[in-house]
Amino acid sequence: MAIQKVGIVGCGLMGSGIAQVSAQAGFATVVREVSPDLVEKGLKGIEKNLARLVEKGTITEAVRNETRGRVKGVTSVEELKDCDVIVEAIIEQLPAKRELFALLDGLCPSHTIFASNTSSLTITEIAAATKRPQRFVGLHFFNPVPVMRLVEVVRTIATDPAVYEEMVSFGARLGKTPVRANDSGGFIVNRLLVPYLLDAIRALEEGVGSVVDIDNSMKLGCGYPMGPFTLLDFVGLDTTYYISQIMFEEFKEKRFAAPPLLKRMVLAGWHGKKTGRGFYDYSDPANPTAMSL
Ligand code: CAA
Fold first, then answer.
1. Ligand 1 mean position to 151 CA, how many Å?
2. Nearest-CA neighbor of 271 among 245, 237, 239, 243?
3. Mean pLDDT in runs of 10 for the chain (293 residues)?
4. Which of 202, 226, 268, 280 is the most exposed place for a label (fewest CB within 10 A)?
5. Is the pTM of this model over 0.70?
């Protein structure tokens, strides 16, 4: 099947990034958000990223304009009905995802392949809301999508091998390095990343080191681009907490259990960079200062 038109549901941080790389790869791209304001906000983010690429000389003005011209923002799910592939990047809640895919299943032709960008929910359970689980995969991208070079391509026991290979190729056409993963909680990256992030919080709780010293240790001692607390704030403490709950539910292992400090920070509304407070205070975004916890 020749993939020509790609639909993205959700134009937040992840959805807008996926829409951008899809358009940059030459696909006609339709991205859906629930309100015109949110569509506008997502498209503005794409325009800002493309403008930065022009400024840096990575792409020409002409390429920027062509790329932007391939992205259409919509508010109605019906407008995705003639897409060859649909990637969902909406709120990380199983009922919302199942409801969306059941709706899309009724709208789209039988050849359309469905993909979820979930980072922790079971793909099999989302796919089971449709009558096409054989044409359903996980496509897990990383934040910031235009920069991070990986996509996890997730197969379930029901995924047709030919569809799966097509999605591995699609990931490569988006400019990413696809890795193959089975539908096991957290796939590959979060299976390893989440216990590491939670362990950093436990080390802090136990007084092993301060936020800044633990961050510097992993950044300067191990060459990680961000220390664990900077990364936690970047990913979102609410998101990490939610993922850890799902993974703990799946594996019942302590390494996936959320430390009490994480739970309390989430309850207090300290969700990281996006709320201005997490392990760091972002009142001056250029110079975050560690919170005293
Ligand atoms: N959108 C687009 N481009 C961006 C960007 C964004 N949001 N943020 C940074 N960039 C670009 C910059 O323009 C710059 O491009 P050039 O090299 O072409 O100039 C490049 O990325 C590097 O940016 P900076 O120099 O400003 O900063 P940096 O060197 O610290 O890099 C970073 C920023 C890429 C985010 C880097 O710190 C990094 O890789 N951090 C780790 C991110 C990570 O681990 N992400 C995965 C999170 S887990 C997840 O997403 C999945 C999940 O399920 C939880």
1. 15
2. 237
3. 95 97 98 98 98 97 98 98 97 96 98 97 98 98 97 98 98 98 97 98 98 98 98 96 96 97 98 97 96 91
4. 268
5. yes
